[in-house]
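In response to reviewer comment 3 from the previous cycle, which asked for concrete evidence that the modeling workflow produces usable outputs, we include below a single protein chain processed end to end. The sequence was submitted unchanged, and the resulting structure tokens are shown without manual editing.
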Amino acid sequence: MGVSAIPPIRAAADSFALVERQLAEFRWRPEVQVTEIPAPNRIAPRAAAVQAVVMGDGDEIGNGRLVLLHDPAGNEAWAGTFRLVSFARADVDEQMVADPLLPEVGWSWLTDSLTQRHADFTAASGTVTSVASRSFGEMADDPARSEVEIRASWTPVFADPADLVPHLRAWQDLLCTTAGLPSLPDGVVQLAPRSGLRPL
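The workflow returned the following structure tokens.
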């Protein structure tokens, strides 16, 4: 007797569970402190989300969020059944904010990270926003701020089967690059989170 096929609904649920588990078990760099947060429940039938703080010399130098969406029926706008939605933000040098090429460079941080980590993707979209602000009047003593925000989403193209790890490595690289930290090269083992961090 042959083995019966998994019903489509069960297969879809198992597929999401596999991808969600990779998100929960991923080993982040020590500088990237990640915690699970409530996921939006109106965008897709299944979702998971994390937020990250990038640390440097004991201070926060960047932060971000990553949302994993899954619609077993597929979504025409996504061109697939999964979607990753990312936000990354960091303070940057004032001269960098004034550079008219910063938006293009910021977008390349995402696409280059995905390419270098061999994270196949399609239907990428997003915005890069750079802001410089100065305070006046009663707030004149507040320091000037310059920051860049990268909001993006893309559809992961999974090879075997639903392998989210390359996309998590790419997102980590995006966070670190935005915050001014170098990415870890392929082959370098990432350390387990330090004690005191909340596990996923």
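The beta strands are 32-37, 46-56, 59-75, 80-91, 121-133, 145-156. We consider this sufficient to address the reviewer's concern, and the full set will be provided in the supplementary archive.
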